[in-house]
Amino acid sequence: MNKITFKLLVFVCILLTGSSATAQTKLFEHPNFETIAKDHKIIAILPFSAKVSLRPKQMKEITPEQLKQLEIGEGKAIQNSMYTWFLNRQKRGKLLIDVQDPGKTNALLLKSDITDLARYTPEELAKILEVDAVITGRFETDKPMSDGASIALGLLVGFWGSTNAATVNMSVHNATDGQLLWNYNKRVAGSLGSSTDMLINTLMRKASRRLAYTN
Question: N or C: which end of the chain has fewer CB within 10 A?
Answer without folding.
Answer: N
